[in-house]
Specification:
Layout (H helix, E strand, L loop, with lengths): L6 E5 L7 E4 L15 E5 L8
Antiparallel strand pairs: 1-2, 1-3
The structure holds zinc ion.
Zinc ion binds next to loops.
């Protein structure tokens, strides 16, 4: 069994700052805070040094 790939969804409006990481798709793909567009990128792998 393969775990779902974790993704980070973020608001493209940096002034908004919305960001969430999960392995599901966000319905509608719009920011819940400002209703703006949502971008997506792979989440940082576990164990990665910060
Ligand atoms: Zn936003």
């Amino acid at each position: 069994m393969v775990k779902g790939k974790r993704l980070t969804y973020y608001c493209i409006d940096k002034a908004c700052g919305f960001k969430v990481t999960n392995n599901k798709t966000i319905d509608g793909m719009s920011c819940p805070d400002c209703k703006g567009m949502i971008g997506v990128r792979p989440a940082a792998p576990p164990g990665q040094k910060v």
